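Hi R.,

As promised, here are both runs. First protein below:
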Amino acid sequence: MQIYLPIAEVSINAFLLLGLGGLVGVLSGLFGVGGGFLMTPLLFFIGIPPAVAVATGANQIVASSFSAVLAHFRRKTVDLRMGSVLLAGGLVGAALGVQVFATLKAMGQVDLLVTLFYVVFLGTVGGLMFVESLRALRRARRPGGALPKRRKHGWVHALPLKMKFRTSGMYISVIPPLLIGAGVGVLSAIMGVGGGFIMVPAMIYMLGMPTKVVIGTSLFQIIFVTAFATLMHAITTQSVDVVLAVMLLLGGVVGAQIGSRLGTNLKAEQLRILLASLVLLVCGKLALELLIQPSEIYSIGVSE
């Protein structure tokens, strides 16, 4: 069943869109990421213009993340204080990112830049996460092999403006969470992602938060930042396709509940290595798209 998307100006199979939304919803509940790092490239691959994919993909993340975070609230694995600090930085970053996106769209360079952003960030983060996860699995298999305890002190603990985060069991400066939130906000606006693939490893390895608390807290922040980025895109770039967003939302809400249940049956190290593998897979596909010569070298566009 074909459905016409008015802003994207293409017709797409409705069941394909529902399936994509469901897949990303499962990832949201399973890994604590919004899933935009996968959704936006997949929308590229099925023929959605990058500007529309970025703006609308951010909207889909809101619903799948909201559905998943409810399950984490029931398990009391959301640090609301840490989430609020990350959110403050994220809103500022998202506002800046939308302005950059609008400028690049006006210059006609947004498609190439978005793809390059994906290749660089996904390749770097996925590679680092994969290597670290393999080391963690090896340590866990050694005789007597519990994983080493998190470091109690580091550069994060030497910074001023400290705050106590009881749910995470930490007393650290608010500066690193604010900077992480701002960086993720910029990525959310430019790449159409929730930023969980950056935020989750940053919260674990930079801030030293427990993995179970990280997932729920990441989802809490993602909801508000992506909602704000979507609103800004709708006002500034007019690239949000409501029909596409609704189809993705319907699949995403169901998938998120499935993913949150599956996540309770896997160890933290296994979750991280699965996420890293997915990130690298998407990065490889995007890199090939940039390197391989297209069948049609020239395309016809309509100037706005």
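And here is the second one, sequence first, then its structure tokens:
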Amino acid sequence: MNQQKSPKNSGFKNAAILSGIAFEMGIIIYLSVQGGKWLDAEYQNEKNIFTVIATLLGVAISIWVVLQQLKRIKY
């Protein structure tokens, strides 16, 4: 017979995936900001250009990660 997953089980799985997305986005962006600050301090850059670039890159990466995870969710 064809066994289908109950909606209850897939709902819990989807909720777990969605709740993890916010933490992953926060960690990626936080680490990119810290990396940019470190680069600015290391190269004695007063305009914080590395922080800006790293932050934008971190946001782009986190959005890409979110989109990849949303593709895995079964409705």
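A quick note on the second one: The helical segments are 7-42, 49-72. Let me know what you think.

Best,
J.
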